[in-house]
Model the fold of this input.
Amino acid sequence: MNLLFIIFYAFCVLAVFSALGILLTKNLLHAALFLLVCLVSLSGVYIFSMAEWLAVTQLLIYAAGIVVLIVFGIMLTNSTSGKPLQVSNARWMVGLLLGAGFCFLLVKTSNEINIVTPHANPTNALMQQTGKNLMSDFALPFEVAGLLLLLALVGAAVISSSPIKKEN
Done:
């Protein structure tokens, strides 16, 4: 077996086990960290599937943006209650059956379709041009929007963490 296939399958196994970790953990912060591992490993799967743009988007938007927001929200919620957030997994069997059903459906349909190579895709040039525009012409508005969102998040954290003083 080729080394690239081994690395690809390692990313796939890591994604599956971290997704199971999300489902089976009771600590909400650990679930968010498992989500981060799952999203980063899916980005590795995308890289080895020759979908680099999707991998970068996965890392920038989901792994770096949304998971940070989730962890920030969990930490703010933890600081108000003083104890770690615990969740119960009461319907794990239903989730397991639905996940297995969707996995079976995905494997069955993926064996029946004809996968088109990236070079034969007519929209490949459009996707490349969109990626170049986002990283060159529209990089400044993209970064400014990210900075504004970060400032809003820090402001919300400061407002929510400061104790409210009552005046007599």
